[in-house]
Structure prediction request, 662 residues.
Amino acid sequence: MSIPVGHYQYDRIDRDFLQARIAEFEGQVQRRLDGTLSEDEFKPLRLMNGLYLQLHAYMLRVAIPYGILDSRQLRKLGEIARRYDRDYGHFTTRQNIQFNWIRLEDTPAILRELAEVDMHAIQTSGNCIRNVTADEYAGAAADELVDPRVHAEILRQWSTLHPEFTFLPRKFKIAISGSPNDRVAARFHDIGILARPGEDGAPVFRIFVGGGLGRTPVIGQELFDSVREEHLLATLEAILRVYNAHGRRDNIYKARIKILVQAIGVEAYREAVEAELAQMDLERYRLTPEAVAAIQSRFAVPQLEAPADADAVLAQQRRDDPLFDRWVRSNTHVHRDPGHIIATISLKPAGGIPGDATSAQIARLADLADAYSFGEIRITHLQNVVLGHVRKDRLRDLWMGLAEVGLAEANIGLIGDIVACPGLDYCALANARSIPIAQKLGARFADTALQAEIGALRINISGCINACGHHHAGHIGLLGVDKRGEEFFQLTVGGRAENGAAIGTILGAALPEDETVDAIARLVDCYLGRRESGETFLDTLTRLGHEPFREAAYETV
Amino acid sequence: MKRPVRLEPGQKLVLTANRLLDGRTVWWCADGTWDLHIGRAALLDADEAEAVLARVVAEAQRDGVVGVYDTAVQAAVPPEPVTVREKIRAHGPTVHPEFAVETEQ
Ligand code: HEM
Ligand code: SF4
Prediction:
């Protein structure tokens, strides 16, 4: 078998481990079914294997390390959706996939099928280091300084089953990017890492700690500006040790690293990390150039060859076909190779469910990845899919193939590209439904010409304060609240996860569900009526302040 | 500690849980079985619910259910849960009408 282009090639040790782990879980399921294990005893065991109990069924969360899959893996996910679920899967903001209708009895068989393609559900739940997320354009974008996948893989290996860090005070999320344009929400993670080349050419890492959303949204603070590659693992190990020793375990709402960093201050945290580093065996954690090269060699390099006129062919096709041109404008990004382009495939059809894909769509995506992008697929933290290396002269063929399965929506980064968590339609913790509001907004702004006219505008919806839909980071954020069994939505504006990260400001009292979509339409009208030439929603908001938007949202006719 | 149950006029309590094998939402029936359809659920008065709940919880493992609790319904035919959450548990996700519990056997 050839080495995959986008992700690391597993070896026998990884595979034996997965099989042993599945056999162990199979035994646990058996003991749960025969009553040897009580639900209280079993719950933490199933969660360690990614299995949740939701409102209507079990939900299985499958890890997609740094969001990258090969077509064989994607095809397998489609098969699992068809055989074991109700023919669809849900891609999440953590670059994972969730299946919503899983039977406990089937879970060991599903895990075996996943293991056939080197996939699993380990560390997708529980108070451990979760799946590390990375820039969805890694290794492809023209603006990238360092390809973060090799270090993401190093972090995956370091954090997987790390004996000291399987029972942290709380879950722990790490994101890494190597671009000056933050596409991973680095400052909303427990640890956010931005890589760039150092003076000697080897990468150095800027490290933020203590970011997070949820009940207490906090923007991560810079802990170190330039950690050298050889000290990356030692530094992360020290950060985790300080958290593990001092993070609160008495109160689940105060257990994340963000609360510890707030409580003692980032300077004190830095001193504690430096003290830890001073007494650690640095040699043990040293990341040598040889070790990095060994990991690098397990990633295949795509052979980027394109005809000399690829760019001209694309330009001509764009002139000939305005619909295609609109899609190219919103759904592509500049590749490092002039003959190639990055295509983002929207999983946000107007009126559809953000992040859901049917097994037929999943299978087609796998075929298109084989045909157009070296069999490689990325899942984005905004619930979309990326083909990283498409030849420019073949982009239109890809677009037509996507259209056949309803995946050619031209709305990336626009108002239709809504992020929404599962909400009360599935989630046992929810206060309100996220998906129906997303569907209504999607239908209201279905016209992609209107979306292009409105310009960059992100809407994020969470069904409760846990903030899985990143509502604090949305340019417009919606948070579902429960008022005596009824659904209400609190509106925030001005959040952003990109460079210049900010937490949205609450506009006012929560609105009843059936008034929410109109209120957002009025916010958008307010912006369209008052923007100056070239301004985005955030620009106009910054210039005018919140007051006009508050008035628009609460205006009653 | 169990919260005191306060029912409005016209309301009763039903017992609900998830099936251990497949996680599906089920409702407790007067004959001691569990059913996917809330229409078959036993309607309980507030003063009897506590004792029935305790008995049913004790038998949850034998009956193959997890997380038994009570919830208020309008005592119509079929009974309709009071909260949005329990309505969605009773009828299925609102975003997939084709999965409506009513159409299942
Ligand atoms: C449906 C089952 C789910 C459950 C039970 C669940 C539960 C939770 C909880 C309890 C938290 C808060 C953790 C804390 O602040 O300590 C959380 C955070 C989060 N969840 Fe979920 N979640 C679910 C689904 C999802 C989905 C589908 C996504 C992606 C669309 C997601 C993405 C996130 C993210 C990104 C956070 C981090 C927010 C932060 O930084 O605090 N979750 N989740
Ligand atoms: S934000 Fe709340 S409702 Fe939405 S998935 Fe997370 S826990 Fe569930």
